[in-house]
Amino acid sequence: MPHLTIEWLKFLPSLVLLLTPVRIFHGDSVHVRAISRGWDRHWAQVLTLTLHGLDLTRAALGSWLLIDSLSVPGAHGVAAQVPFLAQGAIRLAAVLLQTVPCKERDCVNAPFAFVIGLLLGGHSPLAAVFAIVLTVTLASGARTPAAFFPLLALSFPAASFLFGKVPLLQKSAFGAGAALLPWLWALLFSRELVVSYRARPSVQSRSPLTAAKSR
Fold it and tell me: What single-letter DSSP state applies at residue 149?
């Protein structure tokens, strides 16, 4: 009877890369800002925060290693779906761990870079690139950063169907769910989506978000 095969040298590193919450790297020099507020004066501080690049890289590499580490040789039907279901569950848990532990109370992180990396390292990088470019264009044009997540959850399956028809559409299901999760969590639990940025040396240790709430 076919059984699940795990390549531990790929599986264990993938878990470390994917399941380490970014919150543990948010020291005193990292502040957060609600994505619903203006970003015009903060773009440089957001883009120069190396944690965003780290998130994208570890999500892409971790997702690729995870998908390549689980298989059921010779399996058919339901048994052949076991690796896919396991990979999907881990990827959803990974996004949740990047989203929920947050530096500010009543807030959740908006893991833009992590979600992008997760899809780029998934089953269809080409569909992911197409969906990400389309989503960024639409969300930027509407000046609604929070729309990035539900738009990507719709555009990614559509792009997957365009490039690979039904088989690739089915494989995109967990990727779409992972993209939707931060927005859905914030909506269901009335949390503010925030983005992290590098504080200027002269900025006081208290986060501007906290200061704004106290006024």
Answer: H
Concatenating the DSSP letter of every residue in 14-39 gives HHHHHHS-GGGG--TTEEEEETTS--
Sequence-separated (6 or more) residues with CB below 8 Å from residue 201: none
Spatial distance between the Cα atoms of 11 and 155, rounded to a whole number of angstroms: 29
pLDDT string in tens for the chain (215-residue length): 568 899 999 999 999 999 999 999 888 888 898 998 766 666 677 877 899 999 999 999 999 999 999 988 876 767 778 899 999 999 999 999 999 999 899 999 999 999 999 999 999 899 999 999 999 999 988 889 999 999 999 999 999 999 999 999 999 999 999 999 999 999 999 999 999 988 776 544 455 565 555 44
Q: What is the DSSP string of 79-138?
A: GGGHHHHHHHHHHHHHHHHHHSS-SSTTEEE--HHHHHHHHHTSS-HHHHHHHHHHHHHH
Q: Please give the torsion angle defined by the CA atoms of residues 194, 113, 68 and 171, in that order, rounded to the nearest 10 degrees.
A: 80
- CA-nearest of 147, 134, 154 to 193 is 147
Say whether 193 sits in a helix, a strand or coil.
strand
Q: What angle do CA 80, 158, 111 make, to 5 degrees?
A: 85
